[in-house]
Amino acid sequence: MKEFLLLIRENPDYGTDMSSQEMQDCINEHIAWVQELTEKGHYKDANPLEASGAVIKNNIVTDGPYIESKECVSGIYFLKADSLEAVIEIVKGCPDVKRGNTIEVREIMQLEV
Amino acid sequence: MVTHTLADRLFREQSGIITAVLVNRFGAAHLDTVLDAVQDAFEAALRRWRFSGIPDNPAAWLMTVARNNAINRINRDKKQCSDHQLISTQEYVMADPALPDVFVQDSQLRLLLICCHPELSEKSRVMITLAVLCGFGTVEIAGALLMQKEAVKKSLTRAKAVLRNAGRLFEMPLVESFVAHRSTIHTVLYLLFNEGYKTTRGTSGISKEFCFEAMRLTKIVYDHDTGNKEAAALLALQFFNAARFPARISPDGEWMTLEEQDRSVWNEVLIREGFHYLHKQQRSLNRYYLEALIASIHCTARFFSETNWPQIAVLYQALEQLVPGSNVIALNQIIAESYAGAATQELLDRLETLRPLMADGKGFEWNMARAHLLCKMGAGDARNDALQQALEYVRTTADRQLVLRKLEERCPPF
Lengths: 113, 414
Description:
With about 110 residues, chain A is an alpha+beta fold. Chain A contains four helices and six strands; from the N terminus they run βαβββαβααβ. The longest helix of chain A has 20 residues.
């Protein structure tokens, strides 16, 4: 199976205006999603990222293009799937997409022979 | 592999418990800080648990994160005003993340006492209890209390300022302050339940949660103070009312009156629990006892027509003497009498004297009672006029639907 990196982009203030019940529902949805991925053999890893970070370009360090555009990469999923098409179908079921967040999908290059 | 899901209400329940424990440790002066720290802990959980699953002991995880967060915040504030001693994380590390129940319960009682502060209005006490001890958000509180979100926010901010400045009042031993403020606590829990109860017909989910929270807190109060007859009666009343929840809304989402309810779906277990607490209370006269007795009569009637209305009417009369000047009780008594005997002009005249209820947010109930009396007296046209009037006071869609349904039905013959 091929491997894909999913980059979740969302508002860095995400969650500050949610009630505790909404937060809990959100976590439950994600866990159900991850559970499904695991059962079907697609899940490899996932991690949240801190909202603050840095972007370095030509020796200039900024807090990134994301803060200004009110979006940052908030987390990553590492999935296994047969093809990009297959992973796109999987991503459509991600609770983040349903909540209006952006997900970028990139295939990991397999360089070892 | 992630296999567990969060227990229902884990966050909300933990929010109240963590807040109580931390306020108990750091003092009411730091209430705001504690609330922010708890909120932060939840946000951290939201970010982390979404991706990496739930830790083995989510409650302990939340408690640790919230506590460290609170310590950091308090230290940051202290640094700004210099020479205060900083709190070390070590000093406040709880030896065992599973805190002894009695400590958690005492903390919640203490926080409940703080939320029942004498300088707050009854409504504020209910709101701050919901926010601080029950972990409800502003939007949820506004929805269930039929208030604007901004109004709730403002109220809570004001209430928190009062608590911050006057927290010392409750720094005496728990037992003493508890005895001194017991009846205020009961009132708040009674109102909290009623707020939930009266709007369950409008917003189903959350309001019912208010009632269950009121029951949970009343249980803590009762367990702390088992000779407390008022609390026993209050619990009995809450159980009897909660037992009827399943029948209050029809499968189509319509609000069912007591007369229309399908009694077979009333919860037997809760009714039995109600009687358990009713017997604990051994006939000491208080308003909760009388109300619980009335509720128990409803709960034991197999059919609406079997309801012992004369007994209920007598109990309302006793209640009127115990709580003089309550228009709501007077209104209920008129209804009870109309079922116990006949609807008469005398009852209609008595209802007329309760007109102030209309200005008091009870216009819906008043007009519905009027429609009921007129209907029983055979005055169909006047009854429909009263229903039209009631339409102007509806608060929820379910209220409106009920009136519209009544308008379509002709007055049943009595």
